[in-house]
Specification:
53% of the residues lie in helices and 8% in strands. The protein is an alpha+beta fold and 210 residues long. The chain has a four-stranded mixed β-sheet, covered by helices on one side. Helix 1 crosses helix 6 and helix 5 packs across helix 7. It is globular and about 45 Å long.
C-alpha cells in the first residue's frame, strides 16, 4: 500500500461515508476504505479518537493530513483535486454550493433522520409512528424548498453538477428508498434521476438501506 494513498475510515452504508466515496469517484481519486463504525466498531479506540475526537465517521488520512466531518471532507477533496469542476473557482459560485451543503446538514438530514431511524434501524414493534409521520412531513417541506430551486436549475448550484449535489443526493437516496408517502416534486425527481446516471452514485450510494 502506498503511503500516499487516501484512507477513508467508515462503513460503506453510512450516509456520511457515502458522500466521501462518491466524491472520490467523481474525482477518479484512488482510496482505501477501512471499516469503522456500526457493526464494525473501532471508533472508541485511542488510536481512532486521536484522529477524530468525536468518534464518528468518516475520517480521512490524506498522506498524514487527518480530516473529519463529511461535508468538510467533500469540500477539501473537491478543492484539492477538482477545482473548477466539482468545486467552483468563482468565490460566489463556491459560496452558493457551500450554502446548499450547509443546508443539507442543518435542515434536510435532521428533518428526515427520525423517519430513517424509525423505519430502517428500529424493529417494527418499537416504532413511534407519530414521530415518523412528523419527520416525513418535515422532510417533505424541506424537499419542497429544494424543488422550487431545481425548477430553475438542473443541479443544486446551477447548470452543472458540483460538490453541492453530493450531500443532497445521498440524503435524497434515502428519501426515495424509504417506504413512505411522498409528495410529487417533479424537479427534485428529475434531478435525482440525473444523479442516478452517475457511476459514482451507482457504485457508492445506490445501495440497500441498512
Amino acid at each position: 500500500m502506498s503511503s500516499a494513498l487516501l484512507r477513508v475510515y467508515g462503513r460503506k452504508n453510512s450516509v456520511n461515508v457515502q458522500k466521501v466515496l462518491w466524491c472520490c469517484a467523481e474525482l477518479a481519486l484512488p482510496f482505501e476504505r477501512m471499516d469503522r463504525g456500526g457493526e464494525f466498531g473501532g471508533t472508541a479506540t485511542p488510536e481512532y479518537r486521536t484522529m477524530n475526537p468525536t468518534g464518528r465517521i468518516p475520517t480521512i488520512d490524506d498522506n498524514g493530513f487527518i480530516l473529519w466531518e463529511s461535508n468538510t471532507i467533500v469540500r477539501y477533496l473537491a478543492a484539492r483535486h477538482g477545482m473548477g469542476r466539482l468545486c467552483p473557482r468563482d468565490d460566489q459560485a463556491r459560496a452558493s454550493a457551500e450554502r446548499w451543503m450547509d443546508w443539507q446538514l442543518a435542515h434536510l438530514w435532521p428533518a428526515l433522520l427520525p423517519a430513517f431511524m424509525g423505519l430502517v434501524r428500529t424493529p417494527e414493534e418499537k416504532r413511534n409512528h407519530e414521530v415518523i409521520r412528523t419527520a416525513v412531513q418535515q422532510a417533505a417541506e424541506q424537499f419542497s424548498l429544494l424543488d422550487a430551486h431545481l425548477r430553475k436549475n438542473n443541479y443544486a448550484n446551477g447548470a452543472e453538477f458540483s460538490m453541492a449535489d453530493i450531500p443532497l443526493g445521498a440524503v435524497a437516496h434515502r428519501w426515495y428508498a424509504l417506504d413512505i408517502k411522498r409528495p410529487e416534486l417533479n424537479a427534485v425527481s428529475a434531478w435525482f434521476q440525473r444523479l442516478k446516471q452517475r457511476p459514482g452514485f451507482v457504485q457508492h450510494v445506490d445501495l440497500p438501506l441498512s
